[in-house]
Amino acid sequence: MQSQKQYIYSVILHAPPHITAAQLLQLCRREKADLAMGTVYRNLSALCEEGKLRCIETPGIPAIYDTTLTPHEHIICRRCGSVRDVQLPFALDSLLTEAAGEELTDYSLTMGCICPSCRARAENEK
Fold first, then answer.
1. pTM of this prediction?
2. What tens digit of pLDDT does each residue of 100-109 get?
3. Could you tell me which residues come within 8 angstroms of residue 88 by beta carbon, excluding any fewer than 6 positions away?
């Protein structure tokens, strides 16, 4: 029998990238209607600690969970909350390690923007 953590992990692996806990709960409840939000948060936390997920925390929006573990950055629309991956053409971790003078264990870079869809909507509302 599959544990709740295994089930949640299998759902998130097949979910759209950059999912919130609330979105994940909706997907999980398709098969397990009685699953509680606390269970989802507890297992997401455990999966992050195990290094199977990244948690992207940005003030003003719910935490976003990412299954892409290779180094990359994120750009988040400040209006709609959409998230996209950004691949820089250079190794930012090396530059940050050099600037900090310390061997970094991790870093997080999240950039804010107004996405093209939100900009177009704003233009149409004028």
1. 0.82
2. 999 888 888 8
3. 72, 73
